[in-house]
Amino acid sequence: MSDPGEWIESAAAGVAIDPQTLLPVVVDEAAADVALAGEDIEGRIVVLLARGDAVGAADLLAEARVAEPKNFALKILDMHVLRVSGNPERALHWLRAMLDEYAGTGHEAVIQQHLGTMYFATGDYLAAATRFRAALALRQAAGDPEALVESSRRALAAAEARAGRGVE
């Protein structure tokens, strides 16, 4: 795990993104426990994923998807449950399909970012860099919040560094 000062901001309480792995990690157990007890389903799922609890995250996500089958954020979280469950290739397949569906919309940058994360997780750092570069450009063009722009910028830097070093 990286130096805590380098962690990338996450929307989930008690969770940050490790800039070396680009995966969520619990950085504040107390805040994560509060998030798990809270009403924010997405935050609860992210905490479970950060703790490596794929089964708990999948169960909670399934319940949430029944209530909100078209919820975009829940669709994205589905992909991370697949990743944590050991099936990142399937997540990549579904994210690419979502990219076709949401191309040209405000969701495209989010999908590009998460595609980058999945490619990074599989070790395809060049593909990850391509996706992070696209997410960064889309976020900058849309005037998205600086935290989102910065997360794309830092993820791109991590992917380019790994690709340049030939890290496997």
UniProtKB/TrEMBL annotation:
Leader sequence segment: none
TPR repeat positions: 109-142
Swiss-Prot/TrEMBL keywords: TPR repeat
InterPro entries according to UniProt: TPR-like_helical_dom_sf, TPR_rpt
SUPFAM superfamilies assigned: HCP-like (SSF81901)
PROSITE patterns: TPR
Top-level division of the source organism's lineage: Bacteria
Name of the featured protein: Tetratricopeptide repeat protein
Gene source species: Zafaria cholistanensis
